[in-house]
């Protein structure tokens, strides 16, 4: 079995500009740390304004080159090839993702890497089967719309699903014919550094895909750059507002996938076995570091005691620890800073009168690394900070409810509106309640069941715009309407 002690992989991460790995102009770097061991993984190039500018100029020049004249079929085949090469290097990519994030290796393989490849397969197919709008106006005219790439697109991403989320933007951006500058999270720079090599091997022309590593300022330089036409961003709500301000003077197109505090609503008539299996996942998979995690759970009063008993019992069986152990369910939190944030929320919950049904503790046997036991908190008021604020760790709150009206009021009393899960066998109630939930995505009797054609994104402070299928194309293209007089 692979265990942490056998894994020694380290890697330095450079920028990738105009088809070549390069250092920062000022030669500055920062350290990348392994959150499971607190050991150094390598040095990362620290991108600054001049590096962002080099990458943007490279992307701008490439937008009128070979990439522009490729046929649809050639471009689609190249994008598909990226998916193939990701799967060929699956073991390497999964290991790097686990080293960088602290998530279990089995999860990196099953979710992050497989889904990353699938993003390219999906958009390679989708781009060849899309039509465009056309209207015949009696015998006067035919109007038809043509899609053009937006131009140079900045892709700014977080650390929780690094390769998967980057490819979720990169694949449609390329399918639509854009050139890009990617800015991965400073906390998880490794898989993006391999991805650019894969793109080159697949035949993406030089300059079409560029990569600049760095901190928030690097993302800010990209967001304010006058030659960047659009920014696709996934991350915290507060960062979204900073990007919006930075992008305003140059009127960029913006797509925002932001934070969430997603409700998981369980009615007493739900199938409890199914509820427990899925709620374990929706609460604790990826250490609870998924924007879609159902971190505030509402349970109908009649079911509450039975639910808590079964949920706590199952949660106690989850193995916390070495991400390279096959039976680990909860690995390390991604960084010291994030770990301390989660611990602060556990303190807040105590002060607010929360009762810890399980967890609330550091996994103490790990002398190094950022491990927190999966935590279930009850007894909190609906206005408690842990019920309202995004913790983004293995921590959930559970609150009982009496009526549909009462639970809907609490569910919608939030700045966030990303996703929700709803559990009931009453189909009328399911459709009635789901229509009233203020969220971009509602799952009935399931969680995180995705079809890449469907609109993905949040409302309120959880995002602006939608990704997926035609929605991605709407963002990554401009439409020109042509009118042909008959
Ligand atoms: P973050 O906002 O701190 O960082 C995201 C990226 O933005 C990083 O690359 C960072 O360097 C960059 N950045 C930071 N400041 C910037 C600035 N001023 N201008 C431009 N770029 C800047 O987010 P995070 O902590 O990496 O990720 C966690 C957050 O992401 C959570 O809130 C989570 O809910 C959210 N998220 C949302 C979705 C979704 O689909 N809605 C998916 C995954 C994660």
Topology:
Elements: E1 15-17, E2 20-22, E3 29-33, E4 40-45, H1 49-62, H2 66-69, H3 72-88, H4 90-101, H5 105-129, E5 134-137, E6 141-149, E7 152-156, H6 162-175, E8 179-183, H7 190-202, E9 209-211, H8 216-224, E10 230-234, H9 237-247, E11 253-257, E12 263-266, H10 272-284, E13 296-300, H11 301-316, H12 336-351, E14 355-358, E15 375-378, H13 385-388, E16 395-401, H14 404-412, E17 416-417, E18 419-423, H15 427-436, E19 441-444, E20 459-460, E21 463-464, H16 469-476, E22 477-485
Parallel strand pairs: 7-8, 7-10, 8-9, 10-11, 12-13, 12-18, 13-16, 15-16, 18-19
Antiparallel strand pairs: 1-2, 3-4, 5-6, 6-22, 11-21, 14-15, 17-20
Bound molecules: nicotinamide-adenine-dinucleotide.
Describe this structure in words.
The chain has 486 residues and is an alpha/beta fold. It has two domains: 4-258 and 462-485, Aldehyde Dehydrogenase, Chain A, domain 1, CATH 3.40.605; 263-451, Aldehyde Dehydrogenase, Chain A, domain 2 (3-Layer(aba) Sandwich). Helix content is 40%, strand content 21%. A hairpin with a 2-residue loop joins β1 (15-17) and β2. It is globular and about 65 Å long. Residues 156-160, 165, 183, 185-186, 215-216, 219-220, 223, 234-236, 239, 242-243, 257-260, 291, 390, 392, 418, 458, 463 line the site of nicotinamide-adenine-dinucleotide (NAD).
């Amino acid at each position: 079995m692979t265990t942490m002690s056998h894994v020694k992989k380290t890697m330095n991460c450079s920028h990738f500009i105009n088809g070549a790995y390069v250092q920062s102009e000022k030669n500055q770097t920062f350290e990348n740390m392994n959150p499971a061991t607190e050991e150094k993984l390598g040095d990362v190039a620290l991108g600054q304004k001049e590096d962002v500018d080099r990458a943007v100029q490279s992307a701008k020049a490439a937008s009128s080159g070979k990439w522009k004249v490729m046929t649809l079929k050639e471009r689609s085949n190249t994008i598909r090839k990226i998916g193939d090469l990701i799967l060929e290097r699956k073991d390497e990519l999964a290991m790097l993702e686990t080293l960088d994030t602290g998530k279990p290796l089995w999860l990196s393989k099953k979710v992050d890497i497989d889904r990353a490849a699938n993003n390219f397969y999906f958009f390679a197919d989708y781009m060849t089967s899309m039509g465009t709008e056309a209207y015949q106006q009696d015998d006067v005219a035919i109007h038809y719309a043509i899609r053009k790439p937006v131009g140079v697109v900045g892709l700014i991403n977080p650390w929780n699903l690094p390769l998967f989320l980057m490819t979720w933007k990169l694949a449609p951006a390329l399918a639509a014919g854009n050139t890009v500058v990617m800015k991965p999270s400073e906390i998880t720079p490794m898989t993006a550094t391999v991805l650019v090599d894969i793109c080159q091997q697949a035949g993406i022309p030089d300059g079409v895909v560029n990569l600049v590593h760095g901190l928030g300022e690097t993302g800010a330089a990209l967001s304010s750059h006058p030659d960047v036409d659009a920014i696709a961003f996934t991350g915290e709500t507060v960062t979204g507002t900073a990007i919006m301000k930075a992008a305003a003077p140059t009127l960029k197109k913006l797509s925002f996938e932001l934070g969430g505090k997603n409700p998981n609503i369980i009615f007493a008539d739900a199938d409890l076995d199914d509820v427990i299996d899925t709620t374990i996942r929706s609460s604790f998979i990826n250490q609870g570091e998924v924007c879609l995690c159902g971190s505030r759970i509402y349970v109908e009063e009649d079911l509450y005691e039975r639910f808590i008993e079964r949920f706590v019992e199952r949660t106690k069986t989850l193995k916390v620890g070495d991400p390279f152990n096959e039976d680990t369910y909860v690995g390390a939190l991604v960084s010291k800073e994030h770990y301390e944030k989660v611990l602060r929320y556990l303190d807040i919950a105590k002060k607010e009168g929360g009762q810890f049904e399980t967890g609330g503790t550091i996994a103490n046997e790990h002398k190094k690394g950022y491990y927190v036991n999966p935590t279930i908190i009850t007894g909190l008021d609906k206005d408690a900070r842990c019920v309202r604020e995004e913790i983004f760790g293995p921590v959930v709150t559970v609150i009982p409810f009496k009526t549909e009206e009462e639970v809907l009021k609490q569910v919608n009393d939030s700045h966030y509106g990303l996703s929700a899960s709803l559990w009931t066998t009453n189909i009328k109630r399911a459709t009635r309640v789901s229509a009233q939930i203020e969220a971009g995505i509602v799952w009935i009797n399931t969680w995180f069941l995705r079809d890449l054609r469907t609109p993905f994104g949040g409302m309120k402070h959880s995002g602006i715009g939608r990704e997926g299928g035609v929605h991605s194309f709407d963002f990554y293209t401009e439409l020109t309407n042509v009118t042909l007089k008959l």
